[in-house]
Amino acid sequence: xxxxxxxxLGRLAAQPVPERLNRLEGDVMRxxxxxxxxxxxAWRAAAVGLALAVGLGVGGAAAAxxxxxxxxxLELANGAGLAPSALLGRTK
Length: 92
Description:
The protein is an all-alpha fold. The chain has a domain at 1-61. It has four helices and no strands.
């Protein structure tokens, strides 16, 4: 059985490739490229629009909420007692 299969595959390999089969890969790649080209701008425009809307929404909400952070330098003073140099000198 194996020899028959090998012989049949050998005969098939020796035959020339049919023209339609020879063009198949190029035809498929052209159709894929055409489909990509037709849908890419719409998706790209939708993605850019969505990113812009989210950015404006978040930025607008942050601007409307105002700044609630502590004045500059205060956040460092609050944790000053937790510095390793301050903790090493403490005794319980």
